[in-house]
Amino acid sequence: MEPIKIAIQKSGRLNEDSLRILKDCGISIDNGRDQLKAAARDFPMEVLYLRNGDIPQYLRDGVVDIAIIGENVLFEKGKDIRVSVRLGFSKCRVSLALPKSVDYSEIGDLDGKRIATSSPNTVRHFLDKADLAAATQDEGGFSRLVEQAVAAAPMAPPSAAMEMSSDLQVLTKVESESAGGASGALEIAERKVISTAFLSIEVDLVEAATTQVRDIADSLGGFLENLNSSGADEGQQANMTVRVPQAQFSDAVERIELVGKVQSKNLGSEDVSERFIDLQAHLKSSIREEESLLSLLGRTTTVSEVLTIERELTRVRSNIERFQAHLNFLERRIDLATITVSLFSPDKASGEPPSASMRIEVNGVTDHVDAVKSLVASSNGVVDSVLVSLRNGKESAVMTVHVFSDDFNSTVDFLEDQGRVRSKDVQEGKPGEYGAASPEEKPRARIDLTFVEDSNSVNIGLMVAIAAPIGALALGVILGIGFFGVYRRGGRTS
Facing residues of 402 across strands? Predict the structure, then answer.
């Protein structure tokens, strides 16, 4: 039975009340708000802790089945979402604030004003009811201009305040009706999965097998991404990577297995649905903010406002490019599965090269990936694959390298020096059937490596910021004691 997925606020006034409702229903949650997802101990339910404004999109995309959310958010971002139950607690207050320097006597004084707000639909509804022509701008660049204008003056009492009821609700995704009536099952959004496979296959003729693998990929709508081969005749070996459409992944693996005798097989998949949806939401939000800033720029009359808006546009466009790049990377990995194939002749199979699997915490994942690439290249090794990802603000990288057996131990020692080793599994390998293996013509010692960002890394800037005033204070104390000693010595001498 699939667990029910329910979304609640990650933080804010509704978080504790929502958890209390679940507890009153006899549902206990294992983890707190520090994690994105938590499972119930005694009920088939998963709780997702999300930002308030992201919850409607998660409902639309089918990532969650239900949600507890304020009606104010529904009014702004979820008018298409169906309300199942009104829970009847909590409310919010939306106030229109003016600087004390502005003369205000009635609501009509707001006519023709520009209002910065994070709740444009709510404010627009209020202004329409009052028959006012004030312009609203989404909170962002323009709101910063307003903050600059009113920063020096305290706010007037909320005489222009309005209140709207915000009953707490349980929401479900809007369902379409079929001929038999409304569907009771929630439509699950298409999962975003990155699929990978690693195959080690013994073959009679490596060159012919290489052609077979390439033809399999081509016939399924894929392509050969890279190929490295060495040796001749029975000593030939090849390492190749092919990409095939996700829908053809299983078929491709099955057909490639028939090329020869499979010595090892490793299939992997990573569900990146939540990360993908989150990136999409951030991208859409940034695009909307850019549109608002461009619209505002066309109506701005002062140089200072133009410069402020242009700085905000630079920041927003940088975010758009970053989110789009991450989405493009994920889409490529999702659409085309990766299959890495190692082909070798029987004489190469008589011995077994060493191998290792390591997980290391480091400061600066990308820098350490580059360091490994440089080391492997300097020893004529091969970097099979590298996958760098960003999640929850922290980088991680998964990579596979092949080095010569003679360089295996030194490479492992180098990796151990990169950071804090969290896990390590080393297989020493075996020599050939008739004693030690002959000098290898192709690096076969494999190392599967995972770099993760060190959770205990210290912000150097923060350390300097703390150490500087402490050092200055200590220096002042030392100098003060010294001067006092001189003064006392002088007094006794006189």
Answer: 382, 446
- Look at the block and give the residue holding tokens 């993908």: 276
CATH number of 96-160: 3.40.190.10
Q: Residue 447: which of 395, 391, 373 has the closest Cα?
A: 373
Q: What is the pLDDT of residue 113?
A: 76
For residue 160, pLDDT over 50 is answered with no
Question: Per DSSP, what are the bridge partners of residue 450?
Answer: 359, 398
Fold entry, domain 351-431+440-456: Alpha-Beta Plaits (3.30.70)
Q: Other C-beta atoms within 10 Å of 451: how many?
A: 26
Class of residue 428 by CB neighbours under 10 A (exposed 0-12, middle 13-18, buried 19+): exposed
Q: Bridge-partner residues for 271, per DSSP?
A: 193
Instruction: Give residues with Cβ within 8 angstroms of 266, minimum separation 6.
Output: 197, 198, 199
Beta strands of 278-381 (E only): which ranges? 336-344, 355-362
Return the H-helix or E-strand segment holding 409: helix 405-416
How far is CA 98 from each of CA 95, 106, 153, 158, 307, rounded to the nearest angstrom?
10, 12, 9, 8, 24
Q: The tokens of 102 are what?
A: 């502005």
Q: How many CB atoms lie within 10 A of CB 130?
A: 15
pTM of the model: 0.34
Decide if domain 4-91+167-175 falls under CATH 3.30.70.141: no
Cα 415 from Cα 391, distance rounded (Å): 23
What pLDDT digit, counting tens, does each position of 317-357 carry? Answer: 888 888 888 888 888 888 888 999 999 887 644 567 889 99
301-318 per-residue burial string, b: 16 or more CB within 10 A, e: under 16: eeeebeebbeebbebbee
